[in-house]
Amino acid sequence: MKNFIYILLISLSFTACEDVIDLELNTAEPRLVIDASLNWFKGTEGKNQFIKLSLSAPFYDNEVPPANNAIVTVVDTNNNTFNFVEDGDTGIYRNNTFIPEIDGVYNLTINYKDEIYTGTEQLTGVASIDRVEQKNDGGFSGEEIEIKAYYTDPEGIENYYLFEVEKLSDNDVSLEVYDDEFTDGNEIFAFYSDEDLEAGDELTIYGSGISERFYEFMVILLQQTDEEGGDPFETQPATVRGNCVNITNPENYPFGYFRASEVSIFNYIVKLKGV
């Protein structure tokens, strides 16, 4: 009898901890989200570009709503105007006549629901990724695979870099930013490690030249979204604003950033340990 009661109590304790908790989170009016990265990949003409516009959404929503029917233009230093036309109702606006120019200044204008958003950026050049090296005994366990993408920083110039490593098998993307404060003119590397990385995994490494302002924007953004920075319901210390403003209604400011970069690409297949 005592054993029966003991088993019954254990069963009740397991069922009692399966309560569903619905959290009521604060909501706000949707804001325009601007994902405007004009990327000039080395070795290409750079004519084909796109800008993605969406709207902010509640935390529990599974879909990100597109921002449709906007008028999107980019004007360069030489007063060339590039019109970006929406692809269906995707919120993705495309242009196939873009003219990239290193150090050229580009002005973005978006007319969305009779409000005008603007942003300005300079197209920043980048050093090529020269080679990639693999280390098989990294991490705390000594068994993680580490990847280093080497490039040579130009001497005497302030440079800022964004490195994106895309793992093609699961579309996972890792982001890191670097500056050359202590590496000016030297060969240096961007670092990537993943405990689940295996031999045969295909990686695409993108090295982009970025402005100092975008570097600072990304440093703050990455700090606030660090996996070890807190739980997912933690309030961000501050709203991270980009370089785009709403000149019609400044209080209705957008999220996101307008960036123009030269990009170096390196494709790499993870090797077997010992090879």
The description of the largest β-sheet is:
12 strands, mixed
What is the number of helices? 2
Shape: globular
Spatial sequence of strands, sheet with the most strands:
11-10-13-15-1-2-5-4-3-6-7-14
* Head-to-tail CA distance between termini: 64 Å
Report the radius of gyration as a whole number of Å: 23 Å
* Percent of sequence in beta strands: 35-45%
Mean pLDDT: 87
Order of helices and strands: HEEEEEEEEEEEEEHEE
User: Using DSSP, what is the number of strands?
Assistant: 15
Q: Extract low-pLDDT stretches.
A: 4-10, 229-236
Helix proportion of residues, in percent?
under 10%
Structural class: mainly beta
Structure in words:
With 275 residues, the protein is mainly beta. 10% of the residues lie in helices and 43% in strands. It has two helices and 15 strands. The chain has helices at 2-15, 212-224; strands at 32-41, 49-55, 71-75, 81-86, 92-95, 105-112, 115-122, 129-138, 144-152, 160-167, 172-179, 187-194, 202-209, 244-246, 255-269. The protein has a twelve-stranded mixed sheet with strand order 11-10-13-15-1-2-5-4-3-6-7-14, with helices on one face. Strands 8-9-12 form a three-stranded antiparallel sheet, with no helix packed on it. It is globular. The N and C termini lie far apart (64 Å). The model is unreliable at 4-10 and 229-236 (pLDDT under 50).
For this entry, give a set of tags:
mainly beta; single chain; 15 strands; 3-stranded antiparallel beta sheet; 275 residues; 12-stranded mixed beta sheet
